[in-house]
Amino acid sequence: MLLRARTALRVPRYARAASSSSSPSPKICAVPFRLKPNAAKEAMLPMSLMLSGKPGNLLYGLALRFFGSGLEPMGREMGLGSSVEMQSIAAAYWPVWRWDMMAEGPWTPAHGGEESPAWMTVREAYIPGNPYAPLSYLSFSIPPLEDDLPAYNPGRDLNQLRDMDIVPVDFTVNPFATLEKLKDVIKRQRNMGGMKVDPDKWKESLLAAYPIYFPIYIAEYVINSGDNKRSFQLIMDAHSEDTGKCRVSVPNPPEVWLKGAPPKNYFVNPAPSMPTMTLILGAAPAQPFQQSPAEVARINYDQWISPKPESKNEIRSSPTLSVSRDSSIDWDDPRIQAWNSVEREENAEYIEAAFEVQKNFAAISNMAHASEQLGEGANLKEIDFRLTSWEDGKTTTASGSMSDMKASLEESLAKSTAELAQLKPQWLQELEKSKKEGSAAETAEVGQGEGEKVDGDSTPAEKKDM
């Protein structure tokens, strides 16, 4: 059982309830509960009927879904849906991390070849704030959120529903420790859709995470139909008054396992955890990729965050479970920022500007590679050059004099680089300065220690001369 309603609510160990008197951090924002409990019950009923496994209930559920709850009295009179009963419904604030990242590093073709630069940008990807499975398998990167979400206020936010308590689930997963663990996974795989990458050689130029409490309903149903007696849960988003915009997450029924191959996800309708990722290569691949490396990376991330079940009776642990056990969240970390903050706005502008710099730099890198192949003495003014850029699986082509194109690209790069420097977020400048000062102090300390060691190893005659 995930959660129980009102005062009888019990939360499992790794999904324990957070304090209802104060917020762990002013950086946490909360999405209001806009969907009321009765509307949620009505919206989940058709799905619960379709999961019962009975043909009559399936047709009744489809009819309710497409024609509305007006058919419910007639269906009940006909005895439809009597084998499905809602046992409980609970409201919860589920902890969500959305994160942005820019990184750059080298890559080589999987089939062999020269090393080239690459740039990767991720926008508003998802990491669960708590490892409790299967809730942690659900992605909350898709629902659109207002930029001005209010800061989480327990006194206000936990009392939004008149007849139902709202349970806030603890933030226990460190997002940055989770991404470090992901690097270990990438090291073992190396090949990313035809690209070989070593995460140790990649450098993050921006990484920020935004903690959000997202509203959900969790309903538990029981099916009593002959020998078919079982329970299941439905989870519904509650961020909108429009039930059509609120996803109902449905677990795969036991019948799926009878088909042989296990399902790819615990839920029938999973959402992507990394919906937006852009990859720019400094050199076009000699052989076309069979599949976009960016798409491969997105799929691999989804499968890692939300692992497929191994049996119909067991739920695999979330990969964030060990992170939750082994590391804590440093709420003072400047990379943790409020969703409604100026920092997040600055990050978005900086990422957009960096994208232009990366495209120009990649184009110049491609041209430099072509110039090397022409050899010394080639008249670039007389050479018509076709520049093909590869960006996130899409190919664009431009042509003209190589020297003119090179001059134009260099001018564009200088302009976009200057603009990028002006847009660098203040928090990022301060963080980089702090790291440099810390590194310099550490180097000086090591140097001083080595000096003392040399002095200690001097001979008596040398010490006298000193």
Describe this entry's structure for a reader.
The chain has 466 residues and is an alpha+beta fold. The protein folds into 2 domains: 6-340, no CATH class; 345-426, no CATH class. The chain is built from 11 helices and 12 strands. The protein has helices at 37-50, 55-67, 72-77, 154-157, 175-189, 293-305, 321-326, 342-374, 402-423, 426-456, 460-465; strands spanning 29-30, 84-109, 116-128, 166-168, 191-192, 195-196, 203-225, 228-237, 248-249, 276-281, 384-391, 394-401. Helix 1 packs antiparallel against helix 2 and helix 8 (342-374) packs antiparallel against helix 9. The radius of gyration is 28 Å and the shape is globular. Mean pLDDT is 80; it is low at 1-14 and 453-466.
Question: Summed up, what is this model?
Answer:
Residues 450-466 have a biased composition (Basic and acidic residues). With 466 residues, this protein is α+β, with helices and mostly antiparallel strands.
Rg over CA atoms, rounded to whole Å, is 28 Å
Helix/strand-derived class? alpha+beta
Low-confidence stretches: 1-14, 453-466
Average pLDDT over all residues: 80
Helical stretch count? 11
Helix content: 25-40%
Task: List the domain count as a whole number.
Answer: 2
Query: Which term fits the overall shape?
Result: globular
The end-to-end distance, rounded to whole angstroms, is 76 Å
Region (Disordered): 308-327, 431-466
Biased composition (Basic and acidic residues): 450-466
Biased composition (Polar residues): 316-326
